[in-house]
Design goal:
about 1000 residues; 41 helices; six-stranded antiparallel beta sheet; single chain; about 10% strand; 25 strands; alpha/beta
Length: about 1000
């Protein structure tokens, strides 16, 4: 064991609320049982089988109110792996559930036996026919697919609010639709073809002209069974009429029985049945969508009404006027949305009954938009709107930023309301539809029912399509609360079906919480046809049992998860998974959601539990060490949960007093540390020049084993040489700004083999050319943005340096009269924002007067207008850093690059490189995993320049791509050099 290896007990929860009724039993402490673990490892390879108790726990939760522990998790890489698992399950009478993003709201992504992850290795988009169609892998997010289509002026039909995280495999498997899809733009209507793996292992490409012939040879009983059901349905006119009527409104309850009416062959029927089948009939390995035009001319309004019924009554008027989207948000939703960045703070004071409609018209051209605006104005003129707070305008707008703000508030419905729920309560999301003409009546009935059962739910939804969502919160650990929820559900389902002939699930698919009510909605005859369909396609019941079909009338009450209280920063989490696609460690260890899920399970356990010990043993590396700490999860989370900050706090908890003192001493003597670091880099440069990299790799490798991998960096060949010992001369008199070269640029030089000036020399030169000279203070040496200490959780050292840099900056900038220009984006973020909590009250007041400007922003806004560009390159690819995302500086990076290059490309898979100062040297595997997709995109073609805005991120991308990244300001200096 390394000398300074932290003890897992340092992360033990300070107060444990367990034992909880749904805690993981002690028999699972050793993880996957034998022979299951060994047999799957031998079949697939040990690296594809996750078996530790921590692995099982982190996959046991999704965005739903349910929690089921799998016996094992398989990371499937291809169809062969899927077929192998299915064959194994058949031979051993086991069950299989497929999971991609885990954003489903009804437990569809959870299993109690073999759980197969089909997200990690299943991403990719191939645009076909100039964007008119797209071939998409099932692990691709809707957001990523639409980004690929946008350049062709096309978009997918389904547009769920979880587009940032949900994947196309899940969208099709649930027939998820969203704000604008309705019944005409959903997966069922816009899916051209799909490739599926049947439970028996047969692979079917529904676009293949020979598919029916091959299926008949491979699965004759299945083909006969499907055609028998088709003939039986078509022989019953009343049943045909009933099926057609059920799909006139949004409906995802049960199997798509209209597939039997719309398909003429077994393959065509299967193609329809797979939509909304929730993984119970087969695995969707690829989809091909017919895309839709991306109408870019928008006009939108957020209109406020005195009550929910009043808003609902206005919906048909906007539908008749041609609105593509009419979204409803009740008072509870609007008030909870205040937690979302950009939402007006005065919404918190909205009256209880206030309800808003978000109305949007989209047109292909200006004339079309103007026509819609005239129709909208006529509708608005006849409405009785209210403006109870100052921010309400009740006016249509074309402003893209304002419209984006409206949609951000709407899409945050589940997470914002869920985040505002009482601590310790479980969140239930219900989704139903009624004929749009009866929406107002349904709203009144829903409010009465909620009041009757003691719920004050939040309501929102796709009002244009008669589709409402509402959220209920209750304590799943209290039997009385569960009984209250059960009583409400019984009454709600009867109300929806018997009074409104509505759909119990409009777009979230049946799931565990509506399976017991399937027959209530469809009746015994149609329901039995669904059971027959399952038996025909999956006669052994291998796939996803109890998720869509369940005869247990209380199945929706089984597996409800308790939500024990955890650290305050993470406690609002509803485990939605929106954070996961942005997380650098997503494909290596854990995600922000999983880090919180694991923490909650620790709280469910009792002291001394072997399960708790197993979770703690794994948590140090899986959660804490491999968190990049970039906090991009905070940007993705609608309620701003910063799991990166929590992991930094855990790093602090693991530090011994000796480590904290050493870190504080390093901060106090940073001038000496900085000089020593530069000399060490210079010495290393000489050693590698003479002897190569192997010696330093061996030395650092041995030191990492002896001391601790999280303390001793690994030598990487991409580490740049030392910076020049001195900074370029400047003058304070006449300076337009104070220039602060970050310590990383004072220690490390530019890329090897790159001719020209250093970064500090380039910033000074280009600023002078633009008539905006900068001044570098003589005493910058020995100061730092404090990120070195902040990222590692060294609080004492962080406080020392945070206060030092702010006091120094105050003096350098003459009390904030001059801007402070910082040449590394992470350091800009550190000085501008991250130091604030560690400042004294006096220094916090000084900090408030400072103007901290990133050098890229300085160049884009202050220098470019005054520069003459003499030469440009053909192409440049950019790596926007995660700090730039926090600072919202990505547009400025592009502007600088576009001044220097004819073509500028930002990879669609660009994300945090996870180098995170030195974390990429402490855990190189983290950067390798985080950059894999972006690197593949970059290396697929040649670029003349690879540009970024942070030296260590550039090193990380060098290592990932084998290309040389450097600051965009170096390229700007070259382009503007006379």
């Amino acid at each position: 064991m390394p000398l300074l290896e932290p003890k897992p007990g340092a992360l033990r929860p300070r107060s444990i609320s367990g034992p909880a009724p749904d805690r993981v039993p002690e028999r699972h402490a050793s993880g996957t049982p034998e022979p299951l673990r060994t047999e799957l490892s031998e079949l697939l390879g040990a690296e594809k089988v996750l078996w530790k108790v921590s692995d099982l726990v982190r996959y046991a939760s999704d965005a739903s109110p349910y929690r089921f522990l799998p016996q094992v998790v398989v990371i499937a890489e291809d169809i062969d792996d899927v077929s192998t698992v299915l064959s194994y399950a058949h031979g051993r009478q086991r069950e299989v559930v497929f999971r991609a993003a885990g954003t489903s709201l009804n437990g569809q992504a959870q299993g109690e036996d073999i759980l197969v992850d089909v997200r990690r290795h299943w991403a990719g988009v191939e645009v076909l026919e100039e964007g008119r169609r797209a071939r998409i892998q099932p692990g691709t997010t809707v957001l990523r697919a639409n980004a690929a289509l946008a350049r062709f002026g096309r978009i997918l039909g389904p547009d769920p609010a979880s587009a940032i995280a949900c994947t196309l495999g899940g969208v099709v498997a649930n027939n998820a639709s969203g704000m604008t899809a309705g019944t005409t733009r959903n997966s069922y209507r816009t899916l051209s073809s799909l490739t599926l793996v049947l439970p028996g292992g047969t692979v079917v490409d529904t676009a293949d002209p020979l598919a029916d012939e091959e299926l008949a040879r491979a699965e004759p009983a299945l083909c006969r069974g499907l055609m028998d059901i088709k003939r039986e349905i078509e022989a019953d006119p009343a049943l045909v009429a009933r099926i057609r009527a059920k799909y006139e409104i949004k409906n995802t309850t049960g199997y798509r029985l209209d597939a039997y009416l719309d398909g003429n062959t077994p393959v065509e029927i299967l193609r329809g049945l797979m939509v909304g089948s929730e993984g119970t009939l087969g695995f969707i390995s690829e989809v091909v969508f017919d895309t839709l035009p991306l109408d870019r001319e928008l006009t939108s309004a957020l209109l406020f009404f005195p009550s929910l019924p009043a808003a609902a009554a206005a919906v048909p008027l906007f539908n008749e006027a041609g609105a593509l989207a009419v979204e409803l948000m009740d008072g509870n939703t609007l008030r909870a949305s205040v937690s979302v960045a950009g939402v007006p703070a005065d919404w918190a004071g909205l009256p209880k009954d206030t309800t808003a409609l978000l109305v949007e018209f989209r047109a292909p051209d200006e004339a079309g938009r103007a026509a819609y605006e005239r129709r909208a104005a006529e509708v608005v003129a006849g409405l009785e709107l209210v403006a109870p707070v100052a921010s309400v305008t009740n006016a249509f707008t074309r402003d893209a930023k304002t419209i984006a703000g409206y949609w951000k508030a709407r899409k945050a419905f589940v997470t914002a309301v869920g985040g505002a729920r009482a601590s310790g309560t479980t969140l239930i999301t219900e989704d139903f539809a009624v004929p749009p003409s009866r929406l107002a009546e349904a709203c009144e009935a829903l409010l009465e029912l909620q009041a009757e059962h003691g719920f004050d739910a939040a309501v929102a939804g796709h009002a244009a399509h008669g589709n409402l969502h509402f959220l209920l919160a209750f304590d799943a650990a209290k039997p009385s609360d569960v009984e209250r929820y059960a009583a409400f559900m019984d009454a709600f389902c009867r109300l929806t079906v018997e009074r409104f002939d509505g759909s119990l699930k409009a777009e979230h698919s049946t799931g565990r919480n509506m399976a017991p009510f399937l027959e209530l909605e469809w009746g015994p005859e149609a329901t039995e046809l669904m059971w027959r369909t399952k038996r025909v396609v999956d006669p052994d019941g291998v796939l996803a049992p109890r998720i869509l079909l369940d005869r247990d009338p209380k199945a929706h009450l089984r597996g409800l998860k308790t939500i024990p209280q955890v650290e305050a920063v993470a406690d609002p989490c509803i485990e939605c998974g929106f954070c996961e696609p942005t997380c650098p460690s997503e494909d290596l260890t854990t995600t922000p959601r999983q880090r919180i899920v694991l923490r909650r399970e620790m709280m469910r356990q009792q002291p001394g539990s072997p399960v708790l010990d197993g979770l703690l043993d794994a948590y140090g590396y899986d959660a804490v060490d491999t968190c990049a700490g970039d906090s991009t999860c905070k940007l993705a989370c609608p309620v701003g949960i910063d799991t990166g900050a929590l992991m930094k706090d855990f790093r602090h908890r693991r530090h011994s007093p000796r480590e904290e003192r050493a870190a504080e001493l390093a901060a106090r003597r940073f001038r000496t540390v900085e000089a020593a670091a530069r000399l060490a880099v210079a010495a290393a440069d000489k050693i590698t020049a003479r002897l190569g990299d192997r010696l330093l790799e061996a030395v650092t490798g041995a030191a990492r084993k002896a001391v601790r991998p999280d303390l001793v960096p690994e030598w990487l060949p991409q580490i740049p040489g030392a910076a020049a010992p001195g900074l370029p001369p400047t003058r304070r008199v006449g300076a337009a700004a104070v220039y602060y070269p970050a310590c990383v640029n004072r220690i490390f030089g530019g890329p090897d083999g790159q001719p020209g000036p250093s970064l500090p020399e380039a910033v000074v030169a280009v600023s002078e050319r633009a008539g905006k000279p900068v001044w570098i203070p003589k005493d910058v040496t020995g100061t730092c943005c404090a990120t070195i200490w902040h990222s590692k959780g060294y609080d004492a050292g962080n406080r020392v340096m945070a206060n030092r840099i702010v006091a120094a900056a105050w003096g350098w900038t003459a009390g904030g009269r001059l801007p402070l220009v910082v040449d590394a984006s992470s350091c800009t973020l550190g000085i501008a924002h991250e130091v604030v909590p560690y400042l004294t009250e006096a220094n916090r007041a000084l900090h408030a007067e400072l103007r901290i400007v990133d050098s890229i922003v300085w160049a884009a806004q202050e220098l470019l207008p005054h520069l003459e560009i003499w030469r440009t390159i053909g192409s440049a690819v950019l790596h926007p850093t995660c700090s730039m995302r926090h600072l919202d500086d990505e547009a400025q990076l592009r502007a600088v690059a576009e001044a220097c290059a004819e073509e500028v490309v930002v990879p669609q898979d660009a994300g945090c490189c996870a180098f995170a100062g030195d974390r990429g040297m402490l855990h190189p595997e983290l950067t390798a995993s985080a950059t894999a997709r972006e690197a593949a995109e970059v290396t697929a073609r040649q670029f003349d320049a690879h540009l970024s805005a942070n030296r260590m991120c550039e090193v990380g991308m060098d290592r990932a791509t084998g290309r040389s990244y450097y600051s965009a300001l170096l390229e700007l200096e070259r382009a503007s050099r006379p």
